[in-house]
């Protein structure tokens, strides 16, 4: 269908205006920043951590700001003569108008008192230019004949949008008074037994050692078939039952599969019965229907995204949107090695970068992230208890994670070796004791792990 004649004319006019419209900038503010810093170079410290040369619209102003920064860093005097000399030494003098322009800047700037305020204007215009550039890039990607899905493009660019942060003078180094008050409040709560820092796991022995702390990332790692997903889903379910809002990114398992595990766990219904109902076991039906009612009652607290091959940017974007709608209490990713990677760099490096972004998500939202992870291939056929070294092939996870839990089932390799034992080692705890092993009981027929009761297991 063709647009009406008047609409086509309006579109042509819109294109003409867009081509003629200059990108956002404020030359007077740029001149005031450069001139003010020439008058008072010591004021550079007020803006140097958030104002960069690339934020200036005019190239000569960007070069002058770079020259100012390097001169101050070298402890050299800053004035029109020294700046002109520096620019000549790097063969850039012709690009900034030479000494006359520098003298004009210094003479027409009455004071350096408002350098920070002018710098905020400069960086705000730079942010608008970046938005315009981002808009053009999105348009190009969307109009490509064999383009990618809209959701993928939106997720990628949402991360870039977050990077265009507002300029602020209240960032960087700050007095510790606020942090001190928070530390005392947390200590008082622990001392008086009024609460703990973070969300508990479903198992008391494990929660006595570590918690799911807001802003931190916890890795639950193990070899295949050790029970990572079962423990992750059980943790999410127990928190929802306690009134917490949980987002599960189940890249490996469909949402129905996650729900089936929750029904088995909460209703004490054998998982096989849910998948293959047996008329001879109708005694299990009341348990299943009760579990369905109970799960439906808390269904608004549990959110599952079953999309396959998600990128980490898509996970972050969807989590942020959900959190903006109503704050989340836990984000669970099952699992790290199923996240779709760009495949432009070595896999270990890209896995490390993906985990870094999940860590940034946790810190930005102040929400704990529970990330399940596979151990490397070399460890998959090893009967010993895994160690942090087995995460080496997954980038820098062992360095970046706040808590790393490694799970192991001895009877998986030898049925006679401590049957039913599920070991959970606190391999890393940034604020806790590492190396502690918590014993749980494998109750995987019901998609859950239980507290270990009775005497501790011992190897033959």
Shape: elongated
Ranges with pLDDT <50 over ≥5 residues? 13-18
- How large, in whole angstroms, is the Cα Rg? 29 Å
Which sheet architecture does the biggest sheet show?
9 strands, mixed
**How many beta strands in the DSSP annotation?**
9
**Which H/E pattern describes the elements?**
HHHHHHHHHEHEHHHEHEHEHHEEEE
List the strand order in the largest sheet: 3-2-4-5-1-6-7-8-9
What does this structure look like?
It is a single chain. By secondary structure, the protein is of the alpha/beta class. The protein is 46% helix and 12% strand. The chain has helices at residues 5-20, 27-39, 59-73, 80-89, 98-108, 115-143, 150-163, 177-191, 204-207, 228-241, 255-267, 271-275, 285-297, 312-325, 347-365, 377-380, 397-400, and strands at 217-222, 246-250, 302-305, 330-334, 369-374, 403-408, 421-429, 436-443, 448-451. The chain has a nine-stranded mixed sheet, with helices on both faces. Strand 4, helix 15 (347-365) and strand 5 (369-374) form a beta-alpha-beta unit. Helix 2 packs parallel to helix 3 and helix 6 runs antiparallel to helix 7. It starts with a helix and ends in a 9-residue tail after the last strand.
Which secondary structure elements does this structure contain, and how are they paired or packed?
Layout: H1 5-20, H2 27-39, H3 59-73, H4 80-89, H5 98-108, H6 115-143, H7 150-163, H8 177-191, H9 204-207, E1 217-222, H10 228-241, E2 246-250, H11 255-267, H12 271-275, H13 285-297, E3 302-305, H14 312-325, E4 330-334, H15 347-365, E5 369-374, H16 377-380, H17 397-400, E6 403-408, E7 421-429, E8 436-443, E9 448-451
Parallel strand pairs: 1-5, 1-6, 2-3, 2-4, 4-5
Antiparallel strand pairs: 6-7, 7-8, 8-9
Helix pairs in contact: 2-3, 2-5, 2-6, 4-5, 6-7, 7-14, 10-11, 11-13, 14-15
């Amino acid at each position: 269908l063709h647009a009406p004649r008047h609409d086509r004319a309006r579109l042509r006019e819109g294109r003409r205006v867009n081509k003629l419209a200059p990108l956002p900038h404020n030359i007077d503010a740029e001149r005031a920043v450069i001139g003010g810093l020439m008058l008072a170079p010591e004021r550079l410290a007020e803006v140097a951590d958030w104002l960069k040369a690339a934020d200036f619209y005019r190239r000569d102003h960007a070069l002058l700001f770079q020259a100012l920064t390097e001169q101050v860093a070298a402890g050299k005097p800053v004035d029109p003569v020294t700046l002109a000399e520096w620019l000549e030494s790097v063969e850039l003098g012709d690009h900034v108008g030479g000494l006359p322009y520098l003298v004009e800047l210094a003479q027409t700037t009455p004071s350096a008192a408002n350098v920070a305020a002018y710098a905020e204007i400069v960086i705000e215009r730079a942010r608008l230019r970046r938005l315009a550039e981002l808009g053009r890039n999105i348009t190009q990607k969307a109009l490509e004949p064999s383009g990618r899905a809209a959701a993928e493009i939106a997720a990628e660019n949402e991360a870039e949008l977050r990077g265009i942060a507002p300029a602020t003078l209240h960032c960087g180094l700050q007095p510790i008074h606020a942090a001190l008050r928070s530390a005392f409040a947390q200590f008082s709560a622990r001392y008086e037994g009024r609460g703990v820092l973070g969300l508990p796991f479903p198992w008391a022995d494990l929660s006595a050692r570590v918690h799911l702390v807001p802003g931190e990332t916890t890795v639950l790692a193990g070899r295949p078939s050790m029970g990572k997903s079962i423990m992750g889903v059980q943790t999410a379910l127990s928190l929802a039952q306690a009134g917490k809002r949980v987002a599960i990114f189940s890249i490996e398992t469909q949402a129905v599969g996650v729900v089936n595990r929750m029904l088995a766990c909460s209703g004490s219904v054998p998982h096989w019965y849910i998948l293959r109902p047996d008329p001879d076991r109708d005694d299990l039906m009341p348990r299943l229907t009760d579990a369905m009612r109970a799960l439906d009652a808390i269904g608004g607290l549990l959110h599952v995204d079953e999309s396959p091959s998600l990128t980490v940017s898509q996970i972050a974007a969807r989590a942020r949107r959900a959190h903006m709608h109503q704050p989340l209490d836990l984000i669970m990713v099952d699992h790290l090695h199923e996240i779709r990677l760009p495949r432009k760099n070595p896999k270990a490096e890209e896995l490390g970068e993906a985990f870094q972004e999940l860590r940034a998500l946790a810190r930005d939202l102040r929400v704990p992230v529970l990330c399940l992870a596979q151990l490397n291939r070399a460890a998959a056929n090893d009967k010993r208890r895994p160690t942090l070294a087995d995460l080496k092939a997954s980038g820098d996870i062992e360095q970046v994670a706040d808590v790393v839990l490694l799970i192991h089932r001895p009877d998986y390799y030898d049925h006679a070796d401590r049957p039913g034992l599920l070991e959970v080692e606190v391999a890393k705890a940034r604020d806790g004791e590492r190396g502690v092993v918590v014993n749980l009981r494998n109750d995987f027929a019901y998609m859950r792990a239980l507290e270990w009761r009775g005497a501790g297991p011992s190897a033959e």
